[in-house]
Amino acid sequence: MSVSQALDEIKIGGLGASRRRVEDDRFIRGKGNYTDDITLPGMLHLEILRSPLAHARIKSIDTSKAWDIPGVHLVLTGEMMATRNLAWMPTLSYDTQAVLATDKVRFQGQEVACVIADDPYIAKDACEAIDVEYEPLPAIVNPAQAVADGAPVIRDDKENQPDNVIYNWEVGDKAGTDRAFEQADVVSRLRLHYPRSHPSPIECCGSIADFNRATSKLTVYMTTQAPHIIRAAVALVAELPEHMIRIVSPDIGGGFGNKVPVYPGYVCSILASILLERPVKWIEDKSGNLISTGFARDIYLDGELALRKDGKILAVRMHADADHGAFFSDAQPSKFKIGLLHSTFACYDVPVAHLTARGTYSNKAPGGVAYRCSFRVTEAMFFQERMIAAAAADLGMDPAEFRRMNFVTDEQFPHRTPFGFLLDSGQYAKCLDVGLKAVGYEDFRRQQEEARKRGKLLGLGISTMTEPLGAGNSREYDILGIKMFDSAELKVHMTGKAILRTGAKTQGQGHETTWAQIVAHELGLPAEDVIVEEGDTDTAPFGMGTYASRSTPVAGAAVSMVARKIRAKARRLAAHLLEVSEEDVEWELGRFYVRSSPDRGVTIQECAMAAYSNMPDGMEPGLENTAFYDPPNLTWPFAVYLVTVEVDQETGVWDVLNIVAVDDCGVRINPMIVEGQIMGGLTEAYAMANMQFITFDAEGNCVGANYMDYLLPTAWETPGFELHSEVVTPSPHHPIGAKGIGECAAVGGPAAFVNAVIDAIAGTGVRNIDMPLLPDRVWEAITHGHDVSGAPPVRADD
Ligand code: MCN
Ligand code: CUM
User: Fold this and answer.
1) pTM for this predicted structure
2) Which atom, in ligand 2's list, is nearest to the CA of 372?
3) Annotated catalytic, 431?
4) 253 near 201, Cβ under 8 Å?
5) Which pLDDT tens digit goes with each residue over 440-462?
6) 681 CA closest ligand 1 atom index
7) Is the peptide bond before 496 cis (omega within 30 degrees of 0)?
């Protein structure tokens, strides 16, 4: 793009414009329209009774007192759900999940019954009036307990499930990896636990189901990141015809993966509305959200690097033990049981690798995948970068140099990883150089030496990452057999104003702003002339929703493609208006002109008018179209994050001195929004590394299901960031060269913080402290010179 073209684009809010977010007008003014803002005539309220125990047999449930409370319309239990075959529902990972417990409760906070009443207070009181008699069973809170001899079988509801193992899975070349290890000069090993974490968006989950007996139509307003998938799931589970189901995602107050799964509350509100023929609203409270929905991570990683003494990585060997909770309900679109964990070490040129993974049940809320993650890529990159730091230390090599010598080089793209992924493009060494310069690497190392002599602990952590973003393509990715692609529909009105709809669903990422910029880039219409709508299955074209930072790589690409279809038709209209043949018409941003006399031209707006008022003979009127986009590959952004810290030896408290981020996500549609995504991701990374404590005791009690322990950093705690955008490697297969960015900083960030703290205490012999690096853990590591595990169960006095 020439400079003058780029300036023209900025003028109309096109590609590269840091256009202000149009959605923020309503959000900042308190005029958003969230699920809980919606009130329908005659609407009732649903509250859920949750299990206080992690594992117990249900002996009896007495709901009679709840029914007697004035204002109560319905009390639902598992037994009643079972009469409609709805006590259990299928999960997106081909398991089953209890909607309301029948035989046993399997985690603390599990849904046992629910009450539908005139208002939420009556419903809550009535929940408390329900008597449940439990017979407690021993609880399992980690994979080692799950597979121990004599462990109670959690899923005794299932046939052919004699134990707590969900799967054993492997990928890579075992024999080749074994051979490479035999030839290694040095073998470096690391084990760690990536703790449970929770997306905790500001808005909790909720739904309003509205079944209309007269029309037989079910409308559900709900907090979902993927409305069309929910429609398919409701059609299957509730056995309702698909065209009689309308799912609407209104404004969403943050998703972060929490709003991908299907929750019992949704199902109960739907059934209640069908039974009562009135709208039923369910809005979760904060503790309900924290204790029962969408956990992520909880994985034990153990791996080895085979190394040559000059620093070359010869092979990677890795084992993962994933704790999935009581139901295997991962909402992830791959056929790989462990998600995309095997994207680990993708940015390094590793000749051979082997990964094994085992999934187990435990007495915890189901979870495993979704929190700003692209399905275990967060764990993959965390392990990779912690392992790289440990290996560099074992070799006595500089960690930056060690990375550089093992990176996939610019000439190697497209690069096939040993686990089978195909990397599209990147300039890894260049990003690292920018980062090292920005952080003042050499200088910092000198300061660190000097400070150490004075008994002060400074540390620098590096994390580099690449991430497979943009599920699918449809050849390799599907959900319940529905192939992964996405869509966009563009309607250009006669005055040149337009409405764009996609199959994605923004939850704060800014699609209403950025999609209009893509249309502006492709058609030359000012972005402000394009409104963007998502989330209503009756109007939006079919799409797979927003997660895995797939919107830009897939739906965003569909936006380009549909705009190009519109432009192709506009070209025919232009030729007609200019009275020349189509081949003689040239395009520049917003205007067609005659090649031989560039002064003779028509604007895109004039073409739009002609589509309704002056089309050539035989041409179909109107200027509307739809595009479905099936990406040929994932997009692979790259990033380098550098963090410097000071650790206080006496207390274990650590402070961040500096954070430098170099992100290459290809072409940036809206640089300001991209920076916002990176800052948000780094804030979450900092929170996970520093302060977010949510775990379990030996009885399976969830410790930290509150914002006193599971801290959300505010502007006060959050350090400042220095962001760099000078490296741009377009994705070769994306129509505008963009790659995803939404998760990168949350994926790559945590290792930079942990590496910084471990670097600061180098010399103590400590290889690992599990997140969160709470002061007492860091203090213990320094004082006793040993690793500190964060694996549950925690001691009662913790
Ligand atoms: N963008 C851009 N140029 C690029 C890439 C992206 O301008 N080269 C813009 C996009 O147009 C979009 C935003 O950045 O407005 C994020 O785009 P993308 O990387 O495609 O990610 P998605 O839109 O698919 O968002 C999903 C991603 C995920 S999976 C989680 S989890 C997460 C995240 O986004 N949840 C979020 N960021 C979040 N941000 C907010 N505010 N709220 C959430 O719930
Ligand atoms: Cu994995 S959390 Mo996001 O993909 O919605």
Assistant:
1) 0.98
2) 2
3) no
4) yes
5) 999 999 999 999 999 999 999 99
6) 37
7) no
